[in-house]
Amino acid sequence: MMNRIVFATGNQNKMKEIKMILSDLGMEILSMKEAGIEADIVEDGTTFEENALIKVTEIAKRLPQDIVLADDSGLEIDYLNKEPGIYSARYAGVDTSYDIKNTMLLNRLEGVPDEKRTARFVCAVAAAFPDGTTEVVRETMEGRIGYEIAGENGFGYDPIFYMPEYGCTTAEMAPELKNELSHRGKALRAMRAVMEARLAKQGEETV
Fold first, then answer.
1. Chain centre to alpha carbon of residue 133
2. Is the peptide bond before 84 cis (omega within 30 degrees of 0)?
3. Which of 66, 16, 68, 23 is nearest to 41 (CA)?
4. What is the DSSP secondary-structure string of 122-163?
5. Nearest CA-CA partner of 32 in 9, 14, 54
6. What's the domain count of the chain?
């Protein structure tokens, strides 16, 4: 019986979002650390989907009875040839603070007009199931890069990601609204639908 979902992340901010979106599945949701797994996984894929699949496949080897989920997400800025892209977390160094990363990106876009500041957050969520199969979904959130760092909510690149139709950055949004609109929220809901279909099928087979 699939009774736990283990998410391959150590990021507490991500875990909060994940638990908010998947809490009503009726399954225990744990981070990798809470499941007692420590792993340093080399994400050498060339796409968000490949990296998410690399993570789940590796962790699933250690947790064969659980559903293992992993995401790979990042920011694509069209004017910068879709940088930082899959290197979003490592942009300017893994240990560099996001204040510095955000400031660097704003500096690289200095003088660039609104219409050329288009950008998107991308999230691929992969799942590995106890039967050895995997699934992956990809979703995006479209916006622009703002002109200054703004907002205290969210994390990462949220303070520079501006949503024109809401007149604010994703770091200025209420968490509930951000989860509804965000790339990760959409991808998690898409994956939840995949899991619900599987659970329903499993229920039919055991009847």
1. 21
2. yes
3. 68
4. EEEEEEE-TTS-EEEEEEEEEEEE-SS---SSS-TTGGGEEE
5. 9
6. 1
Backbone torsions φ then ψ of 80, nearest 5 degrees: -100, 35
Alpha-carbon distance of 65 to 4, in angstroms, equals 8
- Three-class secondary structure of residue 61 per DSSP: coil
**Residues forming a β-bridge with 5:** 29, 67
14 lies in which domain range?
4-206
Catalytic residue among 72, 95, 131, 158: 72
Looking up tokens 């160094």 gives 93
For residue range 55-84, what is the model confidence (pLDDT) as tens digits?
999 999 999 999 999 999 999 999 999 999
Contact present, 4 and 14 (Cβ < 8 Å): no
Which residue in this structure is represented by tokens 């199969």? 133
Summarize pLDDT for 157-202 with one digit per residue, the tens.
Answer: 999 999 999 999 999 999 889 888 999 989 999 999 998 888 788 7
Give the CATH number for residue 122: 3.90.950.10
What value does the CA radius of gyration of the chain take, rounded to a whole number of Å?
18
**pTM of the full structure:** 0.89
Tell me, yes or no, if 158 is annotated catalytic. Answer: no
Beta strands in 46-203 (DSSP E): 67-77, 83-84, 118-128, 134-145, 161-163, 168-169
The neighbouring-strand residues paired with 77 are 83, 119
Q: Are 202 and 135 in contact (CB under 8 A)?
A: no
